[in-house]
Specification:
Layout lengths: L6 E7 L7 E5 H4 L3 E4 L6 H14 L3 E6 L3 H6 L11 E4 L21 H15 L6 H15 L8 H7 L1 H10 L3 H10 L5 H19 L2 H7 L8 H6 L3 E5 L2 H4 L1 H20 L12 E6 L7 H9 L5 E7 L7 H10 L2 E4 L4 H6 L1 H4 L5 H4 L6 E5 L1 E2 L2 E2 L3 E5 L9 H16 L3 H29 L15 E4 L6 E4 L12 H8 L8 E6 L8 E5 H5 L11 E3 L7 E3 L2 E4 L17 E3 L1
Helix pairs in contact: 4-5, 4-13, 5-6, 5-9, 6-7, 14-15
Length: 575
């Protein structure tokens, strides 16, 4: 049975020097607590005192600290019997990164919440350069990766530029709208338009994921811990997101993602009866750094899931108006340290008529004005003084080192192992992409065919000397004489004189039935046709020789001793 009456002490009354310590009951803490005040007024101290009480009481706690000092102090107060409950998440520990995959094992009914949560995280970080097209493409990229087993945020860039990887992911998509986007829309973008669409994502998401610090945390497929188990088993999650060590944007990114994951884990408790849900306390110092739309949802819905928020920051304008409305519309307890004049005017309605804006701007260090939730009813505003910080234990450094060592051993892996896995994953995708490109290139080319050796075709011709029919295995050259075997032997021996006649061939063929012989002098008197194409050329009136088609004259051997005018050697004359 849960103890709804347990009181967490955090202040003492200062009315007429009464100095009576008081606190807030468990059931009232489920309506959330809000602390506001200038820097150095004692906000972190009161958070520290409450965290230590929760840890020593065996409760489940998560602390999101963008400075690191709060986490490093409360870790020294962890009891020995709770050392194994601590998950010390320190991104600046580059040698032993803890895995956190926000896309891992997401229930299909919560996928849209993960998408909207991540979009909200990115949108908050890049609010000044955010655009609808960037959000549109990024939304579908995350939605697709949520359905692909083993996905991490590293897959976003692959999804946009690697066709092979994109094809594998699209095959697993069951959402028809998301699938239609990648098949019918994105793949048909012109190259220039596609480059313009993904350039903002590459400049922003790509810049984060190119950092070894972020890549080694978000790029691991299997998370080191389950957020649902942390909440149900009441473990201690300490997030040291020091801006000075990991960078402001990296701190905001990791913190906002963690809070989104915590919200989803809390909402998954719907499968557990409300009375059996164990309280889990989420402390967020400087919460404006992580205040996405998830915060508004947590403040309005988390109570029934036993996720109790304790948030603190310096001034109201640090958060957007929607978050402001969610905070003052849902928190049950408001604790105000010294604030500025603008915030005093804003909070005047909350504390009037008991306190004026002048009272709110003149508070001393550790002094507060409180509107406390008591048994479900908000009290009238009253003044108080927060408790001083708890003294550090004598062996605080030893306890801290032991807890960090145990947490590292249970939840972290050496950097070399992680980078090897990520490199192997990246190389596998590159090889698959290159193989696909080779297959496409090969498919687009015709296979080379080996030229077959030419077969010699036997051609029937007549010997230019004796007129005997013979066969040759080469293409006849009309400028050279052709002999039969016997005449060839005689020609080589110099026993055959140069022929005194030339062969007239109809067209370009040496066809037996279309050829006849005439003397060179007769051929010289053939009149050429004056029009192109096949025609009839007649010899002199004394000669009845008819030549059909264009006539070629082949002079095998010109005889320089001949009294008749000879044609140049090797020339072909068309008539």
């Amino acid at each position: 049975m849960l103890d709804n009456k347990k009181v967490t002490v955090f202040a003492e009354t200062n009315y007429r020097r009464s100095n009576v310590k008081f606190g807030i009951k468990t059931d009232d803490r489920r309506r959330h607590m809000y602390f506001i005040g200038k820097t150095g007024m004692g906000k972190s101290t009161v958070l520290e005192n409450m965290i230590i009480q929760d840890i020593q009481s065996g409760l489940g706690v998560c602390v999101v600290d963008p400075h690191g000092d709060l986490v490093e102090k409360v870790i020294s107060f962890v009891p020995t019997h709770r050392i194994n409950d601590v998950i010390y998440f320190n991104p600046s520990d580059l040698a032993y990164p803890i895995a956190f995959n926000v896309l891992e094992s997401v229930d299909p009914e919560q996928r849209h919440l993960v998408v909207s949560g991540l979009i909200g995280v990115f949108k908050k970080i890049w609010a000044d350069s955010w655009g609808p097209r960037l959000e549109y493409v990024l939304h579908h990229a995350i939605s697709a990766l949520l359905e692909y087993p083993g996905s991490t945020l590293l897959g976003i860039m692959r999804m946009l530029v690697d066709k092979t990887f994109r094809k594998k992911v699209v095959e697993k998509i069951s959402d028809p709208v998301v699938k239609a986007f990648w098949i019918d829309e994105y793949s048909k973008y012109p190259d220039r338009f596609q480059s313009e669409a993904i350039a903002p994502i590459q400049n922003k998401v790509g810049r984060f994921l190119s950092s070894a610090l972020i890549r080694n945390i978000l790029g691991q497929v299997k998370s080191s811990f389950s957020m649902r188990e942390i909440m149900d088993q009441q473990k201690i999650l300490l997030l040291n997101l020091s801006k000075g060590r990991v960078g402001e944007d990296n701190s905001a990114l990791l913190g906002a993602m963690m809070i989104t994951k915590i919200q989803l884990a809390a909402m998954s408790r719907i499968d557990t009866p409300e009375i059996e849900r164990k309280d889990f306390y989420l402390y967020v110092d400087e919460f404006q750094n992580f205040a996405t739309e998830s915060f508004a949802n947590i403040l309005s819905e988390a109570r029934k899931y036993r996720l109790n928020l304790i948030i603190a920051h310096q001034y109201i304008e640090q958060v957007e108006e929607t978050i402001q409305a969610a905070v003052f519309g849902n928190v049950g307890t408001i604790v105000v340290f010294r604030i500025g004049a603008a915030d005093a005017e804003y909070l005047e309605n909350e504390f009037t008529p008991t306190f004026t804006p002048e009272d709110l701007v003149n508070l001393s260090k550790f002094e507060v004005y409180i509107k406390l939730m008591i048994d479900g009813v908000t009290s009238e505003a009253f003044s108080a003084r927060t408790l001083p910080p708890v003294e550090m234990p004598e062996n605080d450094s030893e306890v801290r080192e032991k807890i960090i060592s145990v947490s590292r051993e249970r939840y972290a892996k050496p950097r070399e192992v992680i980078e090897e896995k990520i490199t192997r994953w990246s190389e596998t995708l590159l090889e698959e992409s290159a193989q696909a490109q080779r297959e496409v290139s090969t498919a687009g080319q015709k296979k080379p065919t080996l030229s077959k050796p030419k077969k010699h075709v036997l051609t029937e011709v007549n010997c230019d000397f004796c007129g005997k029919e013979t066969e040759i295995n080469f293409i006849p050259d009309p400028t050279k004489p052709i002999y039969c075997k016997e005449c060839l032997s005689l020609s080589k021996a110099g026993k055959i004189p140069a022929p005194s006649s030339i062969k007239v061939v109809s067209g370009n063929k040496r066809a037996k039935e279309s050829e006849h012989f005439m003397s060179l002098s007769e051929a010289m008197h053939i009149r050429p046709n004056n029009h192109p194409g096949p025609a009839t050329a007649d010899a002199d009136d004394d000669d009845d020789t008819d030549i059909e088609q264009t006539t070629k004259l082949s002079v095998p051997i010109s005889n320089p001793q001949s009294s008749e005018k000879s044609l140049p050697r090797g020339k072909i004359i068309n008539f």
